[in-house]
Amino acid sequence: MLMLIADTGATQLVAATSPFACARALRTRGHLPSAHRPFTCKQKCSAQAATAVQETMPRSLTPSVSSSADLSSVLALDNIRQTLIRQEDTIIFLLIERAQFALNAAVYKTDAVPVPDFDSAGQRYSLLEYLLRETEQVHGRIRRYTSPDEQPFYPDRVPPLVLPPIEYAQVLVPQAKGINLNKQVLDLYLQELMPGITEPGDDNNYGSAAMQDVLCLQALSKRIHYGKFVAEAKYRAHPEQYEQLIRSRDHHAIMSTLTNEDVEKKVIERVQRKAAIFGQDITDGQQQPSTFKVEPSTVANLYEKWIMPLTKQVQVAYLLQRLD
């Protein structure tokens, strides 16, 4: 028999072979007084366990209750800056992890690995496509893609939730969810980034490489689509200026207004320094500056040529729908 026990704010699954074991588990966690007699039937044991879990379960996990989350603070400029800086750290560390494996081109070729999934035309998916789709199936069920700062690579395959939905505060306009540049993110990752950070060849670490690919793609996607929040913050700071440009549908002028070359230069310099620091080997307290796990210039180029331009593309797309 399996019984759910609430322990230190988290729900644990405890294997109990008898009602006596259930009672011992409950007593140990303080749900029964020490003098309480063991249960005499499975029904009472199950009911007591369910009651204990219900009383201690976080409200957000109770199926009949939908919780809410206030995201308005994310539009504060300091919060946005700190979020983007943390995302830099995440991206650089993930690229370093991926770089330990060879390119492993078979991971990205259809039919190179016999995965059990096919597209609508009957063509087998690549290992990366398969793993990415399967990962999104799991993450989608636990609300990942209901969050305003997340975008799936396969939006047509997002599964139904197994957790109750969270009612987020309306920070972005509803049309924001339809802005999805993940196809471009995937293309730049495979065509530009992978050849630049990995050694050519095949080391047969297909599963490990594909798992790191998924993590890298998710981090890049989140960073780029965070441009929606940046655009909303900039709009609220100067609504009259942006409203005029939006109503005239002046893409070029909106892009020019969004661009701050001094800030972009500082970002490029910062990520290059971070890549140099994070990617060095340190032996006996001595840095080895001659070798890097990922070339810092590659990370700087990624931000300059891809991440920041795609982020601004997201911003322009968002602002053009801001008044709809």
Would you write up a description of this structure?
The chain is mainly alpha-helical and 324 residues long. It has eleven helices and six strands. It has helices at 19-28, 42-56, 77-99, 127-141, 182-197, 206-225, 227-237, 239-247, 251-258, 261-278, 296-320; strands spanning 2-7, 10-15, 68-69, 167-168, 281-283, 286-288. The strands form three sheets. A two-stranded antiparallel sheet has the order 1-2. A hairpin with a 2-residue loop joins strand 1 and strand 2. Helix 7 (227-237) packs across helix 11 (296-320) and helix 10 packs antiparallel against helix 11 (296-320). The model is unreliable at 1-66 (pLDDT under 50).
For this entry, give a set of tags.
324 residues, globular, 11 helices, 52% helix, single chain, two-stranded antiparallel ribbon, two-stranded parallel ribbon
